[in-house]
Design a protein that fits this description.
198 residues; Glutathione S-transferase Yfyf (Class Pi), Chain A, domain 2; two-stranded antiparallel ribbon; elongated; mainly alpha; 2 strands; disordered N terminus; single chain; 7 helices; 64% helix
């Protein structure tokens, strides 16, 4: 799965272009830059977690961002003498697009790295079994460490689901009448999953 990650950008062999700085514009002084994620990134757990943390900043501050956006919209409406609810739909859509950009970037990284490690681990297991001629034997050198890494990456998938649920709940508290556009199939899936997890 090393070279099969889905992306709208061109992918160099063994690497994954990754980045969505626009999703964090006006929220952070230093938006994430585009980086090229390779299998080596996946095996550097510290670097992998740093990347995930960077792309979870929007979720960590979603309540503050919602409050600021609502306050700015109300102030603008008062100045223009229009209803307090004017512009709410547009505000919610803009924030939704920021959230989804972050979700997509993180899921791309998670899917890529989980696939890289799982595939390599599977190959090692198969080669080891063929070499020793039995299915129940001591793991090959380095296999245990790779199994630990694979488990940690799969755990990150569960963590990601929890973070998405939390940020979606905060979003829905301010955008009560918002529904994801029908064209956003994956985003609607995350939306429904968060609803069902209540």
């Amino acid at each position: 799965m090393t070279d099969h990650a889905s992306t709208s950008q061109s992918i160099a062999p063994g690497s994954l272009p990754f980045g969505s700085a626009s999703a964090y514009a006006d929220t952070f002084l230093s938006p994430p830059r585009q980086v090229s994620v390779s299998p080596a990134t996946c095996y550097n757990l510290s670097l992998f977690k740093d990347l995930m943390k960077q792309y979870r900043k929007l979720d960590d501050t979603i309540v503050t961002k919602l409050n600021r956006a609502n306050a700015a919209r109300r102030d603008s409406n008062r100045t223009r003498g229009v209803a307090s609810t004017d512009g709410q739909e547009e505000m919610c859509l803009a924030l939704w697009q920021e959230m989804i950009a972050g979700y997509e970037a993180r899921q791309k990284l998670l899917t890529y790295c989980t696939g890289v490690v799982d595939e390599n681990l599977s190959s090692k297991r198969k080669a080891h079994i063929e070499a020793v001629g039995v299915t129940r034997s001591s793991p090959a050198l380095g296999q245990f460490e790779e199994e630990v890494l694979a488990n940690q990456l799969h755990t990150e998938q569960s963590v990601e689901a929890i973070i998405r649920k939390r940020s979606l709940e905060a979003f829905k508290s301010s955008c009560k009448f918002f529904k994801p556009p029908p064209s956003e199939e994956r985003a609607r899936g995350w939306w429904e999953a968060a609803n069902q997890a209540k």
